[in-house]
Amino acid sequence: MNAEFRHKIVLITGACSPLGAEVVESLAGQGALVVAVDSDGARLADLVERLHAQRLRIAGRQIDVTSSAAVDALVDQVEREFGEIDALVAMAGALRPGPALSITDDDWSHSFAVNVDGVFNISRAVATRMVDRTRGTIIMVPAHAVAVPRSGIAAYAASRAAAIAYTECLAVEVASRGVHCAVVAPTDVHRVADEVGFLLADPTNTTNTAVGA
């Protein structure tokens, strides 16, 4: 248990991915109240039940982050039910692997809807409230590092690069209002949960730039 986390409310999207679940469990284990968000209701229920059995503070919410209306309603509900959101960890992502010349229109659109629109929707909804309060932390975590081009992930890499650029621009705009943003790219997936916890414990460590992207 970490005393710094006992009063924190953290919203995490993509909570049921392997990496997302690890971050959820890590932050809840340190004492934060975690609102776990995912589109997979069955896996979300299993995650919440498992962590409740460990007496950790967690609530599950099933939504589609590509819907701005659903995201706005979620953030409003969370703040009315639990209190002000201290931190957002945006981890929801979609990966449809395949050669660049074989990407379908649907693959491309879906990748950008989840990986870019989803980040935009949830970041905007949370950051608007954080700016008014002049405090808060937003961390974006891609499922894969995209700084080095690789075959088979063109749609994912292109969409995540757009989301990273958006997050960096957001960081510049909201820094003066007490809101800190960072990108934590998983060059070593075993360190992601620790990196996120480190940034949430001291938001000034973000320096409002991408980390390991």
TrEMBL record:
Give the GO biological process terms.
Answer: siderophore biosynthetic process
Its keywords, alphabetically, are: Oxidoreductase
Domain of life according to the entry: Bacteria
UniProt cross-references to InterPro entries, sorted A to Z: DHB_DH, KR_dom, NAD(P)-bd_dom_sf, SDR_fam
All copies of domain Ketoreductase, residue ranges: 8-195
Q: Name one Pfam family in it.
A: adh_short
GO molecular function terms here? Answer: 2,3-dihydro-2,3-dihydroxybenzoate dehydrogenase activity; oxidoreductase activity, acting on the CH-OH group of donors, NAD or NADP as acceptor
Q: Which PANTHER family match?
A: 3-OXOACYL-[ACYL-CARRIER-PROTEIN] REDUCTASE FABG, SHORT-CHAIN DEHYDROGENASES/REDUCTASES FAMILY MEMBER
Which family is annotated? Belongs to the short-chain dehydrogenases/reductases (SDR) family.
* Name of the protein in question: 2,3-dihydro-2,3-dihydroxybenzoate dehydrogenase
Its taxonomic placement starts with: Bacteria, Bacillati, Actinomycetota, Actinomycetes, Pseudonocardiales
